[in-house]
């Protein structure tokens, strides 16, 4: 049995999407002769906490924890109690907000968790020397975690797999950061060094695989996936024509065209206006809220800031339509949100807005699970929503998806285990 040291910032009781990928791999590793050891933070200030996820950690898994100092504690001294996540950068920050964004972008490279690198390397170097570890795995973001792996690789020449749940310099909000030229150069330099030194690199989609393959010949696409939570669950569908979006919705992800279309159809069709409801589950930016108000949809939109992971499934299963909006950014073609795979397991029709030639579009086509409309195809979106609505009225809004089992967490863990065995040869 191979022993793998998983180095991750996000671990239960952390909630949200960032924790799911490696929590599920750890859950199934023993089925494929891999014994995981998890190294994580001891006192993280997670933006979302979900204690129910602690129950998913297999019994007897060794979890190592070391404290981390995060500079957000300093920012709070200046009256900034809740520093927004990078994906929720304020498009119109105050003067003080601009200073904070500039400092975070240019003095905390690759990110504000960089102060965990040095103590982690010191701790893990001693641990590895006293314990048989066949391979280390780092997963980011935060991409500072990869620098822990890089230093351990350089010092111990250990086997190392770098997992990118999201891109680094190609992440959707990178272009928004107020970076200097030297900071941009530093990011690219660190990213390339990680890619070149890792024995294998895991990514979530084929577009980023193509980009990373320029620096490493051992890049593997391991998507995110779904687990068994709702596979055999039967929940009655909403009586209304419900369209549900689950996950963060920041300014780049704001589907202005979607709100405009709903407003137009509502004005033209009284029955549609009475039947339709939009449910937004997750953090929503002020720009999105303003757009909803502008299009006279406030009474038609329900906003639920956060639900525990297990509670989200009910909303997925009972919704008539599941919504998926990609960020309208230069890297949109390669974006695959983790939520798509849990959408697949819900077996409800998916309506997505994003590049029609991107990685997400390919998954929807392969699984026959929904339709994607390009960012500027307003009339097409309007026609398709009306088509879905008419199917709803006729009680024929069904989905015959295929090929989704390949995205089950256990099947994906099998693939990761095979990569671990290959690296450890």
Beta-strand residue percentage: 15-25%
Can you tell me the residue ranges where pLDDT is under 50 for at least 5 consecutive residues? 75-88
CATH topology of the largest domain: Rossmann fold
Given helix and strand content, the structural type is alpha/beta
For the record, what CATH class of the largest domain applies? Alpha Beta
Number of helices: 15
According to CATH, the homologous superfamily of the largest domain is Glycogen Phosphorylase B
CATH architecture grouping of the largest domain: 3-Layer(aba) Sandwich
Instruction: Let me know the largest β-sheet.
Output: 7 strands, parallel
| Order of strands in the sheet with most strands | 3-2-1-4-5-6-7
Shape: globular
Mean pLDDT: 90
Determine Rg (CA atoms, Å): 22 Å
What distance lies between the first and last C-alpha atoms, to the nearest angstrom?
A: 13 Å
Find the count of extended strands (DSSP E, 2+ residues).
13
Helix coverage percent: 25-40%
Tell me the count of domains: 2
């Amino acid at each position: 049995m191979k022993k793998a040291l998983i180095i991750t910032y996000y671990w239960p009781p952390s909630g949200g999407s960032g924790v799911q990928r490696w929590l599920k791999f750890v859950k199934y590793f023993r089925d494929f002769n891999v014994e995981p050891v998890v190294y994580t933070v001891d006192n993280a200030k997670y933006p979302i906490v979900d204690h129910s996820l602690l129950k998913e950690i297999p019994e007897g898994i060794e979890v190592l924890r070391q404290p981390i100092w995060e500079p957000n504690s300093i920012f709070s001294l200046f009256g900034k109690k809740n520093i927004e996540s990078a994906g929720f950068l304020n498009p119109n920050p105050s003067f003080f907000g601009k200073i904070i964004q500039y400092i975070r972008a240019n003095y905390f490279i690759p990110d504000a968790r960089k102060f965990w690198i040095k103590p982690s390397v010191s701790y893990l170097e001693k641990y590895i020397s006293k314990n048989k570890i066949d391979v280390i795995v780092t997963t980011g973001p935060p991409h500072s975690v990869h620098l822990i792996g890089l230093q351990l690789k350089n010092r111990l020449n250990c086997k190392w797999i770098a997992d990118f749940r999201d891109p680094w310099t190609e992440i959707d909000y990178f272009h928004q950061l107020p970076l200097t030229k030297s900071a941009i150069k530093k990011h690219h330099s660190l990213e390339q060094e990680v890619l070149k030194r890792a024995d294998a690199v895991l990514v979530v989609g084929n577009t980023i695989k193509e980009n990373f393959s320029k620096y490493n010949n051992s890049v593997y696409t391991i998507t995110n996936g779904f687990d068994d939570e709702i596979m055999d669950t039967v929940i009655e569908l909403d009586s209304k024509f419900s369209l549900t979006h689950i996950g963060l919705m920041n300014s780049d992800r704001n589907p202005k065209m979607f709100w405009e279309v709903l407003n137009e159809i509502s004005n033209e069709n009284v029955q549609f206006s009475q039947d339709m409801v939009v449910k937004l589950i997750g953090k929503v930016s002020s720009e999105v809220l303003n757009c909803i108000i502008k299009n006279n949809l406030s009474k038609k939109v329900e906003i639920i800031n956060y639900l525990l992971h297990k509670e989200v499934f009910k909303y997925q299963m009972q919704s008539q339509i599941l919504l998926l909006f990609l960020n309208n950014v230069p890297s949109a073609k390669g974006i695959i949100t983790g939520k798509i795979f849990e959408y697949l397991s819900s077996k409800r029709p998916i309506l997505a807005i994003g590049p029609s030639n991107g990685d997400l579009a390919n998954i929807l086509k392969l699984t026959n699970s929904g339709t994607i409309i390009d960012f500027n195809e307003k009339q097409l979106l309007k026609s398709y929503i009306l088509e879905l609505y008419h199917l709803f009225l006729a009680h024929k809004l069904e989905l015959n998806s295929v090929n989704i089992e390949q995205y089950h967490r256990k099947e994906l863990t099998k693939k990761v285990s095979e990569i671990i065995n290959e690296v450890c040869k």
